[in-house]
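call fold(seq) -> tokens
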Amino acid sequence: MSEPDLARNLETLDGYLARFRDTGIRNRIAGADRDGGGGVFQTTSPVDESLICDVARSDAGDVDAAARAAAAAFPAWRDMPATERRRILIDVAEAIEARAEEIALCECWDTGQTLRFMSKAALRGAENFRYFAGQVTSARDGQNLPSPTLVNITTRTPIGPVGVITPWNTPFMLSTWKIAPALAAGCTVVHKPAEASPLTARLLVEIAEEAGLPPGVLNVVNGYGEDAGRALTEHPAIKAIAFVGESRTGSLITKQGADTLKRVHLELGGKNPVIVFDDADLERALDAVIFMIYSINGERCTSSSRLLVQDTIKEDFEARLVERVNNIKVGHPLDPATEVGPLVTREHFDKVTGYFDIARADGATIAAGGGRMGEEGFFVKPTLFTDATNDMRCAREEIFGPVLTSIPFGTEEEALRIANDTDYGLTGYVWTNDLTRALRVTDRLEAGMIWVNSENVRHLPTPFGGVKASGMGRDGGDWSFEFYMEQKHIGFATGAHKIMRLGAG
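ret:
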């Protein structure tokens, strides 16, 4: 443990949290703080279960006020010159960078994510704002589609006030990922962060308003999905819902928004395969396999939670995997040396650790980990299941923790069959030095995103999203604007073309 660094980070964090202990986290609606109609709930740290602060618990009345504020702010924000909106979003990006340390430390304490990864959360959030700020001036551009009698042009207009519902795993980055393109498109936003991670959502709205975002353009309502979340998805003033979370909740959101014909974008779960063929660069493949399941505490939708390893290399690859997994540093999230921190809540801790007995009962071997770390907090040993088959629950259900299931295969055809035998289809990872094999496998792999000889490397202009139970819609580049904007067609006659005359005798 890096004792001086940890002590310094804890002292700095205490200064950042002092005001929340005094005032709690309130809703932010139309540029003003507001108590929750449902009273308060408490947010605690997964490190030691200590209280962080009280949080406003929103009810339908709070959501209605926020939706009305977003609707009232929408015309002016929509009609603001693009260059001015771009300047504001750039100012937001710069303000995020200026408070990067505060964002990172608060996020680590609130969620259990490690400083090793969250130190970059603010920078990625700023990158999201800066990238979409660069797209503002062209976001409404359309096409010229001439026909024999018309000049047909298209344009895009912002859809209106939108709801953004974000998860607890990397909340700040994922919030900016949704909110930045919505604002760039000209929409106003009502944001409901996950109840387990409200701290950095509060920081984001403060930062945005201080950077010049007009009141009511971004509103934050805290609370639970069954109260605030449902009220948001059902509110008639909200024209679209962008959601990141589990598949079951995504299904509920689709149903709740149906009566108001709400557009939905769903970024949901995954049980993603990483396929390692025996001709791969095995050292790099090993690094990528470990990184994509044990980083971010395994709490990431794109994690490669199923390892499909060719039987000719299985024994050696798994032996090396066990050695590395047992060497992963689990500890305090504010210690820069820590690689895996505590899981976010007791409920989630119980879910993840419950799979240890499930895997044993199904016949899998726990080759590494399989227990908790210490007696305080929600720390779990990085875990590896071997001797698994794809019909076991540990291979089919999204565990969403630092748990990897290894499944052997013999042939390319078998690898594809196992990989696609899942309800999910978010990502896939393929390791091979055979180009033609890579082309065949990626063509048949049922996933919205696939990386070959690489971990997940996000490039903002590319589409991000899944198929099957992993969601619908795409984030990134122009795909984000397709969700937050409406297409409009306008046809101009180029002459007096013949119009059919009815009732003229």
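The chain is about 40% helix and 20% strand.
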